[in-house]
Amino acid sequence: MKIICIGRNYVAHAKELGNEVPTEPVIFLKPSTAVLPLPGPFVIPSFSSDLHYECEIVLRISKKVCCIDLKAAITAYDAMTVGIDFTARDVQQRLKDKGLPWEKAKAFDQSAVVGEWRPADQYKNKKDIHFCLYKNKELVQQGHTAAMINSFEVIIVHVSNYFTLEPGDLIFTGTPAGVGPVEPGDQLEGFLEDDSLFDILIN
């Protein structure tokens, strides 16, 4: 199982970090060891003093696909959830300043929260899905699929041109604006529509 992540897929998020809005999906990978076993907790790694949450919708691939078109992409995933792409922002910035890859800031152990799965066909209009994140019972981040630069299907088509997708692979589809830091003792709860799909403690 591999985890494909899409960066800068919401205009407001790209701008909040001072990045250019991309003209095609930005892709990076996480290994299977990045998945945090629920219910957690998530332990802030010792190498970062500026750890950020990035809440996003996650897709689960259901069939082997390669170089597919938009029509085929519609049936390439069978489940959805909401998750967190944890980012060591200080590490990422140091690596970016040197022009180096930033997997160490994104792909470290347990950096990917994956909530409880819901059937993809439960959501009839994929361009009308709301998701959000609460920190300590306060709303800190919310997104809507209508604001995505690249839709689920466009993402799958693009990714499949470079990587063969296999059953069980995960795609993190990008985070909206509102990312922010976490500290020990924080509680994070993620919602897809009205469903609470994860609730984790930060240590």
**Taking all residues together, what is the mean pLDDT?**
95
Treating each run of at least 4 consecutive H or I residues as one helix, how many helices? 5
Number of strands: 14
Largest sheet: 7 strands, mixed
Question: What fraction strand?
Answer: 25-35%
Order of helices and strands: EHEEEHEEHHEEEEHEEEE
Task: Give the radius of gyration.
Answer: 16 Å
Shape: globular
Helicity level, as a percent range?
10-25%
Termini gap: 27 Å
> Segments where pLDDT lies below 50 for 5+ residues?
none
Task: Kindly describe this structure.
With 203 residues, the chain is α+β, with helices and mostly antiparallel strands. It has a single domain (3-36, 49-201), classed as Alpha-Beta Complex (Fumarylacetoacetate hydrolase, domain 2), CATH 3.90.850. It is 16% helix and 33% strand. The protein is built from five helices and 14 strands. It has helices at 11-16, 70-73, 89-97, 103-106, 152-160; strands spanning 3-7, 26-30, 51-53, 55-61, 77-85, 87-88, 112-114, 118-119, 130-135, 138-144, 170-172, 180-181, 187-192, 195-201. Strands 1, 2, 4, 5, 7, 8 and 11 form a seven-stranded mixed beta sheet that branches. A four-stranded antiparallel beta sheet has the order 10-9-13-14, with no helix packed on it. A three-stranded antiparallel beta sheet has the order 6-3-12. The longest helix has 9 residues, at 89-97. The mean pLDDT is 95.
